Amino acid sequence: MSTTVSYRPADGQVAGAVEDSTPEQVAAVVTRAATAATATATASPAERAAWLGAVATALTDHAEELARLADTETGLGLVRLTGEVARAAAQLRFYASVGIEGSWLGVTVDGATDTSPRLVRVNQPLGPVAVFGASNFPFAFGVLGNDTASALAVGCPVVAKAHPAHVLLSVRLAELASDALAAAGAPDGAFGLVVGMDAGTALVCAPGISAVGFTGSQAGGLALWRLANERDIVIPVYAEMGTVNPAVMTAGARGRLEDVARGFVGSFTLGSGQFCTKPGMLLAPAGGDVADAVGRALVEAAPSPVMLTERIAASAAAGVERLVGAGAREVARTGGAGAGWSADAVVLAAPASALHPGSPLLEECFGPVAVVVEYDDPADRDRAIGALQGSLAGTVVTDGSGADPEAGALVARLARQVGRVTVDDWPTGVAWTWAQQHGGPWPATSAPAATSVGAAALGRWVRPVCFQSVPDALLPPAAREDNPWRVPRRVDGELR
Amino acid sequence: MSTTVSYRPADGQVAGAVEDSTPEQVAAVVTRAATAATATATASPAERAAWLGAVATALTDHAEELARLADTETGLGLVRLTGEVARAAAQLRFYASVGIEGSWLGVTVDGATDTSPRLVRVNQPLGPVAVFGASNFPFAFGVLGNDTASALAVGCPVVAKAHPAHVLLSVRLAELASDALAAAGAPDGAFGLVVGMDAGTALVCAPGISAVGFTGSQAGGLALWRLANERDIVIPVYAEMGTVNPAVMTAGARGRLEDVARGFVGSFTLGSGQFCTKPGMLLAPAGGDVADAVGRALVEAAPSPVMLTERIAASAAAGVERLVGAGAREVARTGGAGAGWSADAVVLAAPASALHPGSPLLEECFGPVAVVVEYDDPADRDRAIGALQGSLAGTVVTDGSGADPEAGALVARLARQVGRVTVDDWPTGVAWTWAQQHGGPWPATSAPAATSVGAAALGRWVRPVCFQSVPDALLPPAAREDNPWRVPRRVDGELR
Fold first, then answer.
1. C-alpha closest to that of B117 among B453, B374, B467
2. Considering only residues 71 to 110 of chain B, which have any Cβ-Cβ distance to chain A shorter than 8 Å?
């Protein structure tokens, strides 16, 4: 019997262990989810909202216990983790409300005409969703994070895989969720958990699973994507992976260099640099002292990062060496916690000419590491942007006047390459609102038209079905003439 | 220099030939499209509608010439083809109007709050789209069909591949479109054509191509899908392929057997059975004389089908043999055109027990061939439905009373397995309206959440971008406060 061992990043010691799910256990969890799928699909959005609300309440009722357990396993700190419990609870309620609003159902009715029959189109839940949460946000992107909340909101059962970086927390969250869902009347099987690497593989291959949500590394996300593409029935994999998120300074931004440097350091070292939205590169006009200013700001901030896992700590250190090997020079370094899985925060500098195809400078270095890349002129800058992979977010740093002459072209340029463009606003935070887009071109995500955060996240778990000449009484409730769920509809082409 | 040869299905003789595009020519066409992409993206929907309108006018102005040329190459008949030219023109105008309506832009604005920045989300065109049209609808699903029209409507340039079954027509349509687009002010490169199998492969692999639309066989669609998945930058492939579309008779429907049999024969032999929406299987209660009635209706209708290509004719005949080898018995056969690429229309019958995994009965037989499968009881019927692949359409054939006790459960069952459910209405026709869903679970399509026909077809060619704290003047026009394109918006969560 294999187990998943839990470690304490603070000192690298073992915190506990959980038995991995056997193939039989995985199959049983998937069967329960598949059995529940009819009941979760036919429940009304209001009923599902009650389920999600119960889970949210369970989180806030146990906030202190959960934050403590999470801190033991992640070292992210009680303040941040307590806040993240509240965020996860708020997200559950938000997705529940988006479910009730009902636009995601896309109800569209075309009355019969002389040449075409009556057609009614409505989105239907796909069925059981496998959720692979992230290491770096144990609550907001964990087993009860955005993926789980948005899937349940549209009526898809969820089978989550426990994250090895916080397996004890994953198990505890699953217990709380299962109890809360049962008490709120959700069908047995609406939520389940599996543990272990092999269990995760089995989950993606299980015929009963209809879609996959993933947040994590490119290697992990692409492995699941490939696995899903080899199934008899290929299923969608929404993998949010992340790459280097560029921040681009205009010439005018040099006028407020110290501010920019401090902001950049704060953003790339937040959460020990373990954000998929970390700005990993600052493209700056040459001839200023941008790299030095960023280096000074780092020394001043003096973070001493502790990483989520031993592997992440080692890979951040190796990443710095790889960047140096690719032509970057080290500008500044802080750290020195020493105990546990500490890493150094590092600022490097490189010329834009180093960004040639295949260079490690074009790859994400997960951790508190960033590169200042100096460009000679706008053409050089645009070549550098074009050399980068598509990414989740891109930032334009202007002179702050609101009329920087370079800003317009840069916003338009980045919009072709990223999922979110920010201006004079660091990209690290991701609000869970209606307009959010947390996604981006391949390989930042496997599905650039999708978002894993925000109201549109619900759209990942449904598929439209058109009902032609079907009597009203035989339609799904959302599509019926009397509109019992009071959802927005488009009738004969007009939104109502 | 290789060529694509055009044949006349009526007599199998050569109608002409077109030189295949060289790799250099493909690269040049893609470069022109990529160069045009900025101009097509920044044009307003009204400007793009003018371009599409000009193409539509060119089609109707040349309807007679085009229908004649198409008939030479496809043998589908002047009446049907003249109607299809009109349909293609109407589709171009429909997608243009959907583009102007603007819901596809998904404009969403969240004002700044104490805890979140101002976010504006708007869909942006992906860039150049490669379009692989169908053999069976040279206009409506051809180089100027649904894919091309919906892509241009959102501002994506199109590079179409000429279909080998109507290569002369493809070239002529491309000429007309290019001239009309230029005259209407569209940028050079907004539309291009390539010819030849290798050119098609090169197109999907070209870095300048951002997405692929395909209509055709499972083998062809999946080959392109695999190719796109092996690119450095993986791109979406919207392949509409098709499988067996089941029609399911209730016990009560036996009361109007002759009607049902005639309707079924009319539907599965329409266009020589060369519809992706052809109902290939009629699941009927055992003990009636359903198979015999369908056989009689076929003999009465007495079609003598001519197929689009020699290969399709041969493969329809081979398909019948494969079905017989799989345990089906031949009930009736008509045909006898003899000349050219004729095929027989065939009705077969099989017991539901023959639908075991791997059976050829579960695979689409493209052509005027259908199988009546008899089931013993509802459980047997549901097992048979479950044995089938996901499909584009599924039909429930009831007693016609509007209160058939079996209808409700069958509609719900088929909705889990198809993209469109029809009741007492044959599925062959596909209206291009707001509510249409022409898609279905894998492997009927490669992207079950997408549709290749109807207003939602535009959504395939865009990706959302969120603008965070971006000054209004730097936003794309559709997202600006003054809403110059007058598109529907969601502001602070409310549709306006």
1. B467
2. 101, 103, 106, 108-110
Burial of residue B237, with CB atoms counted within 10 A of its CB: 0-12 exposed, 13-18 middle, 19 or more buried? buried
Answer whether A435 sits within 8 Å of B236, measured CB to CB. Answer: no
Which of A336-340, A351-355, A457-461 has the least mean pLDDT? A336-340
Q: How far is A88 from chain B (nearest CA, A)?
A: 15
* CA dihedral of B35, B36, B39, B44, whole degrees rounded to 10: -150
What does the block give as tokens for A363? 């790859």
Cβ neighbours for A392, distance < 8 A, ≥ 6 positions apart: A240, A242, A243, A245, A276, A277, A418, A419, A420, A427, A438, A439, A440, A444, A445
Structure tokens at A318: 């190796």
Interface test with A, best of B267, B465, B472, B492 (most A CBs within 10 A): B465
Quick check: pTM over 0.95?
A: yes
Chain A touched by B263 (CB under 8 Å) = no
Task: Name the residue with tokens 């209004």.
Answer: B472
CB contact under 8 A, B463 and A474: no
Is B39 an 8 Å CB contact of chain A? Answer: no
Residue with tokens 């369908």: B294
Domains of chain A listed by start with CATH number: 3-241+448-489 (3.40.605.10), 245-423 (3.40.309.10)
What's the pLDDT tens digit per position in B444-493?
A: 999 999 999 999 999 999 999 999 999 999 999 999 999 999 999 999 99
Euclidean distance between CA atoms B199 and B194, whole angstroms? 6
Judge residue B383's burial from the number of C-beta atoms within 10 Å of its C-beta, 0-12 exposed, 13-18 middle, 19 or more buried: middle
Q: How confident is the model at residue A339 (pLDDT cuts 50, 70, 90)?
A: confident
The helix (H) or strand (E) run that includes residue A295 is: helix A290-301
Name the B residues in 387-416 with CB < 8 Å from any A CB. Answer: 390, 402, 407-408, 411-412, 415-416
